[in-house]
Specification:
With about 260 residues, the chain is an alpha/beta fold. Helices cover about 45% and strands about 15% of the residues. It has helices spanning about 30-45, 80-95, 110-120, 145-155, 155-165, 170-175, 190-200, 205-220, 225-240, 240-250, and strands spanning about 5-10, 15-20, 50-55, 60, 100-105, 110, 120-125, 130, 170, 180-185. The protein is globular and about 70 Å long. About 40% of the residues are buried. The protein binds ligand T3D.
Length: about 260
Amino acid sequence: LEQPILVDSTGCLTEVTLNRPHRLNAFNDAMHAGLAAALDGAAKDEGCRAILLTGAGRGFCAGQDLTSRAMTPGEMPDLGASIDAHYNPLIRKIRSLRKPVVCAVNGVAAGAGANLALACDIVIAARSAKFIQVFIRIGLIPDAGGTYFLPRLLGAARARALAMLAEPISAEQAESWGMIWKVAEGGALLAEARGLAAKLGAMPPEGLALIKEALNASVTNTLDAQLDLERDLQRKAGRTSDYAEGVRAFLEKRPANFGGSGQ
Ligand code: T3D
């Protein structure tokens, strides 16, 4: 029986693998359900301090599985319903999750698969990976947050061309445009991604959650509103035991040991 999502929890890291390699990990309903459950589980798991998302096989994710979209002539499907049920909750879940999500893009990331990667906090891609806003090839628009993330990450000119031309861009190009954090040599991708996740896992969890909250809000806030938000969130951060530990460790010239007990 196909297990469309694999979850492996080791120490403070939860590794989630999209596992439909014969379809380049395209989404069907079961994979959506499995991914939502895996992310909910990681959010609730007190031992989990970082999440790593990757794909099995040669692709990362090819977006919606089109074999479940075959139509009879004249049929008018409601893709909005699918987006409401699956893609929007997924993107919202990743952005609002109070833990860092590292995405290791192991191969082609197309359609909603590309934008799933862009929703994550830190994206590292194999040199052989490609990102394709493939939607217009079948008459669709970028979804899963694509029309939001692309102009903000790349600027309007590149966002428009990528969305309208559906041309693939290489991992190297994505890195030099600032669309992702960095490229890794293929063989080193997972080790590097795990290293990043482990580093995040040792950082103050509440601080990381507040960084996510601040950066999410900054995209639409005015400077005034953002300054107020920074004040409010810094007030919270300053009341955590990890802040006290960080300052103590600095003054005692020793590495800090962040417990993440929060308040
Ligand atoms: O519907 C809704 O709910 C609305 C939401 C939509 C969100 C979306 O993501 S819409 C966009 C859907 N995705 C696509 O249109 C991508 C389709 N795939 C491709 O264009 C290409 O496969 C890639 C560019 C991603 C990779 O090309 P390549 O040459 O490396 O691989 P390939 O040979 O095309 O694919 C390998 C196999 O995976 C192949 O199966 P086969 O022939 O070996 O049996 C191929 O059919 C299958 N596959 C790849 N992508 C999908 C897929 N099967 C079903 N659905 C896919 N999306």
